[in-house]
Amino acid sequence: MSAAQSAGKASGGQLEERVDLSSETTEKISQATTLIDTAKSTNPSSLPSALQDALALLSALEKKCRVGNDTPSLVQVCRTMITLCREADGSSEKEVLHATLKQLSTRRSQKSKAIAVLVETVSPWLINDDGYTPRDTAEYASSRHELLTTLRSISSGKMYLEAEYARITRCLAILAEEAWRNGEEGKLVEAADLLGEVHVETYGSLSKREKAEFVLEQMRLNLMRKDYVRAHIVSNKIKKSTLEEEGMSTLKVKFYTLLASYYQQHDKNAFELAKCFHSIYGTCANVEDKKESEMTDEVMIGWKEALTNTVVFLCLSEYSNEVKDMMERIRLDPKLEKIVECRDTIKAFLKNEIIHYPLPHQTALESIPAFSTASLSSDLVTDKSLSQQPDDTLRAHWHTTFHTRIIQHNLRITSLYYRRIKLTRLSQLLSLSSAEAENQISQMVSSGSLYAKIDRPKDIVRFSRKRCEEQVLTDWAEDIKQLLGLVEETSYLIQKENMVQGH
Asked: What is the pLDDT of residue 291?
């Protein structure tokens, strides 16, 4: 019986004819390996020609296995061809390896397992065991980028290689970012575009953690290139429930730190910043309570700093029921008692009393790094010295906002105690000039957070709405109804008591 044995013929389109070429495959692979070993030991200069002979021998066998549908033998042949190229191709550019990869991956009716083994065999030579960081080896110093690009093009569009495609793309993005840090123009945009092409949230072969790490990299690079719209869109790809799972504390803190950087640099939305820092505080406090060591020093900013940031940006937020509710919840936190300036500030904003500016702890509250630092994540800056330098424009913005929020608080409190008040007297209470007080009242009325009318000739501010005759009559009728109800109930109780005493 011949070495090539038929394993079954096609019958009615139900079965695919398969030829068993395992014996021939073993023999030809042994011959090819012997050719390379002999050239290495006897005449190293003849190694390129020996490699060509070995590849020619195995190429004919590869076609035979592919046409004969002997997939196990085909996979073995492809792996051997790639391995021999690595061993015998001494050029720095690895041209033979490039050519062999492209040739094998583009063969007509090539099996998916054969293409997969090409990527799985070459990837560990270029990428570290974590799956995405480039392997720093002298062997592939000049050909690493080209080989990774080739592997990426091979795995592109193939569902069975989607995980490898994502990891290779991330590796290429890291290389592009390194080139940008070394001074090459346009590489940062290239790195962000590379990662942006991968819709990793739709991949089923990656774990939740790996998907989250990939999306965080997309966020980080988009923030670095100042593409804030795309950064915010990418941030919505991560489910908050995923970050709450066990073992995701590091990623949760990194996510909210990047999100806070977005709001700090782009929107300057104080309430969203407060919510981000509160999420970081909850994570850091839980990790510290459980004495877990999962989080690194670079990520773990400390619950005190996170809680301080939360309180400061809550005070900087425009008043709403949601802001007040969050203040009430934080006031009940026992850890707040350990930070005196935050405790006193929260209590001052929750009391129905006028706050005098500046606050007793104003300097301490405005000295926190988040008050004047645009990039809240150290990953978003290239020069570590730059990250420590405060942004005077940002500091001035938050300083002005802090004063404005205190004025708005005082105006709300004044409206609770006064139906009308002289503008001169109101200016004294707010420690402002009449023009500044009028400007602040106008802004609050325009935003809908306060009702007020200013009578300039009489120098009077009215906080109570003027009711029409129908409203006055309706309120009077409602009061009379309640009064009559009370009189009727009282009469009934008196009669009941008289009857009890009569017996």
From this structure: 55
Rounded distance, CA 500 to CA 185, Å?
98
Distance CA 327, CA 249 (A): 24
pLDDT of residue 502: 77
What is the phi/psi pair of residue 421, to 5°? -155, 150
Q: Are 372 and 392 in contact (CB under 8 A)?
A: yes
Query: What is the total residue count of the chain?
Result: 503
Residue 224, H or E segment:
helix 208-224
Confidence (pTM): 0.83
Residue 159 CA neighbour count, 13 Å, CB half: 2
Nearest CA to 168 out of 138, 199, 133 is that of: 133
Identify the band that residue 56 occupies on the pLDDT scale cut at 50, 70 and 90. Answer: very high
Q: Is the pLDDT of residue 385 over 50?
A: no
Q: List helix spans (H) across 14-70.
A: 22-42, 47-67
Asked if 354 and 414 count as a contact pair (C-beta separation under 8 A), the reply is yes
Taking CA atoms, 155 is separated from 122, 160, 260, in Å, by: 12, 8, 35
Token pair in block for residue 111: 């099996």
The radius of gyration of the chain from alpha carbons, rounded to an integer in Å, stands at 36
pLDDT at 16: 65
